[in-house]
């Protein structure tokens, strides 16, 4: 009997401790959504805990679709999405929703060829390949862009994402902008009806399949190509210059792109001679009118911190920070949140 | 009265004395188990109802066409489930074709032939195979199995069976066949374990009778053991099939995820479970989400249907063999 009593005592103490912990608990701010920015968001929440220990963030990376749904049903304090919300979805919201862009990333065109030469591609060849019209590596259109590179008479095996994702949204948004045929036949979405190719699950699935399949070509996030040491192509931008994807060329694209007042923008195929054409931002979604004033205030404080101090951490995690011009506009928007 | 009889009488009177209490206990036990059994049925009905609710818009919009069309276009909001139904059935069939002979042969070896020093390690190894998480098998599939399949078995299949429509066209690696093989690996342990238990429960009298009639070891196993356990083995296969139909992660990683219906098993395919896992999190429009719910409903329906068909098949097999035995 003795050990049991002892156990019970420990349990009671534990329970009491638990109760007192919740009594003095910090404020909990809940968010859910996009998976692409999850690493930097969790870094921000960790760092912010040191700045303001009275507030804690709970973020679940359930996907952009889930993020939009949960902010619409007001089950979270903020949502997160890799694509801007559609007019239809915004109309369902009980209040006005602000889009707060935070960081951006790029898709690179990765491939697997003998000797892994560095390649140059343009809108025509990328769209042609993904439409299934260019299906050999030594197609005249590709060889014309790459003088001096010996391309094999090998089939191009297109690899795309099979899961719905913000990465696919950026990719199809780019293709829709540069190819009228893509726009009418396929369109822009987090997943589409692919004309050709095989699907890999997640960035790791696509990069795995490209690495394992000779002659493969596909799109992955920049960071995956860097981590996996995959070769990726320079892409011709709208100014006619071949650009190697990098954090700088993404930020440049955001600086030169047309950004509307509601921040529901797309930065694919941005003007400017140094912009990388296939990139996109990610957004936090918050209500203009906050239901809980105390929480709202803390959320605004956090957003301001994230857009200033937080942005400086972006590059270490291979995210492109907002250019100053955009950031100043976004900070003004954050000030408009009513608590 | 003998001693034994008096003890019996005493015991009997003891039992009658205890009767009221134990009868209440029996009743309670009966009701409790009934409630548990019903809970399972209610759960299935609730799941079905929830899926039906979740997909009501899509059912209204697409109607029966949902099952017979092949376009899956989230942009144009056109949804048809046929390639996914096809992919689920074909990949499961491939898996059964590979896994059933392997598992039953393994089970027969383990119960009838294997010396104990082989049996124990082999049994643990097979059970360990069941413990490997699906996603790990999938990664192994991408990095080891698929490149190997593309390098060696696929060209061989093409060379010798290329005249059939099943092994033609380019071999990328990720394919319906790769999906079927990974499912086969995943259902192998469950079929083997259940088959082994069933073969072990075959009474030794059966074997002894066969040997007494002069049967060889192979004949005894075939006639006295496998044939006797036929019904149970069939049940083991159905259990495996149930798993095969719903298997998701590992399949998604190697099947190529392309909604198409192609005779060639080298071509990529897609399954019902995979498309839900792939697209559910990022589906933003209502009708898209509802179509995915309907896919879930179809999967549930197919699982139930396949099980019913299997039961029916089992009944015909057992009744025909019974009549043959009578004749």
Topology diagram in text:
The complex is a heterodimer of chains A (339) and B (327).
Chain A: H1 2-23, E1 27-33, H2 38-51, E2 55-60, H3 64-72, E3 78-81, H4 87-91, E4 97-111, E5 120-121, H5 123-130, H6 140-145, E6 157-161, H7 166-178, H8 180-185, E7 198-200, H9 202-212, E8 216-221, H10 222-227, E9 234-236, E10 242-243, H11 247-256, E11 279-287, H12 293-308, E12 320-321, H13 324-335
Parallel strand pairs in A: 1-2, 1-3, 5-9, 6-7, 6-8
Antiparallel strand pairs in A: 3-11, 4-8, 4-11, 4-12, 9-10
Chain B: H1 3-54, H2 56-62, H3 65-68, E1 72-73, E2 78-79, H4 82-113, H5 116-131, H6 134-151, H7 153-161, H8 176-200, H9 204-212, H10 217-226, H11 230-246, H12 249-254, H13 272-279, H14 286-326
Antiparallel strand pairs in B: 1-2
Helix pairs in contact in B: 1-14, 2-14, 4-8, 4-11, 5-8, 8-11, 9-10, 11-14, 13-14
Provide a descriptive summary of the structure in words.
The complex is a heterodimer of chains A (339) and B (327). In chain A, the strands form 2 sheets. In chain A, strands 1, 2, 3, 4, 6, 7, 8, 11 and 12 form a 9-stranded mixed sheet that branches. A 3-stranded mixed sheet of chain A has the order 5-9-10. Chain A is 41% helix and 19% strand. Chain A has 339 residues and is of the alpha/beta class. In chain A, strand 1 (27-33), helix 2 (38-51) and strand 2 form a beta-alpha-beta unit. Chain B is globular and about 70 Å long. The model of chain B is unreliable at 1-9 (pLDDT under 50). In chain B, a hairpin with a 4-residue loop joins strand 1 and strand 2 (78-79). Chain B is mostly helical and 327 residues long. Chain B contains 14 helices and 2 strands, in the order H-H-H-E-E-H-H-H-H-H-H-H-H-H-H-H. The two termini of chain B are 50 Å apart. In chain B, strands 1-2 form a two-stranded antiparallel ribbon. Chain B has one domain: MetI-like fold (Orthogonal Bundle), CATH 1.10.3720. At the A-B interface, helix 3, strand 7 and helix 9 of A face strand 1, helix 6 and helix 13 of B.
